[in-house]
Amino acid sequence: MSETCVIFDLDGTLVDSEILCNQAFVDLLPELGETAEQLVHRYRGIKLDLTLADLEKRLGRRLPATFETTYRERVAELFSERLQPVPGAAAMLKSLGRPKCIASSGPPQKIAHSLKVSGLASHFGLNIYSSYVVGIWKPDPGLFLHAARDMGHAPENCIVVEDSDVGVQAAHAAGMAVLRYDPHVTAMPDDRATVFSDMSQLKELIERLEAERAD
Predict the structure, then answer these.
(1) How do residues 200-211 score in pLDDT, each as one tens digit?
(2) What residues act catalytically?
(3) What pLDDT, on the 0 to 100 scale, is given for residue 149?
(4) What is the pTM of this model?
(5) d(CA 127, CA 150)
């Protein structure tokens, strides 16, 4: 049996960043009148330019040309102050014992900052893939397929760990098994992904998928 490559999403999967990314919108656009938690539910996994277009529609006005830069600066500040790995992520990565990489929709500098602040950078080295470099965004499967190819693994020998609907769609379209991290068990049932709520469960789930593949 070929070795399994585990492809991780980053935001909301390995680092608890979704709430901070959306807190930046709350800080910069208080007229929205919504909490960061409400915005996470609406925008989880969505490409930033689509999110900004939706915000403009809801606000009934154009955002300043400098808004994206201001937003990213605020996110970076919040990450430096408060970003943490999701519970159990560091121990899981240390014990995983399989080739692994990051495939994130975020820009490279944001990925690097997240991994550094959270203390997870050493687990991935240069095995980091960004939509901004590849030019492909989830739910298109291209980012995952690019990561698998560069890592030297066939799609059927890859397992994707995701937290968003668009990420699950992308992995499924790539022909990869999907494990969906959902710590609060809020996602609707989806036969495309196995849902888990604790990072301590991940290695066993991967072993189970490997055993099924070997049968």
Answers:
(1) 999 999 999 999
(2) 9
(3) 98
(4) 0.90
(5) 9
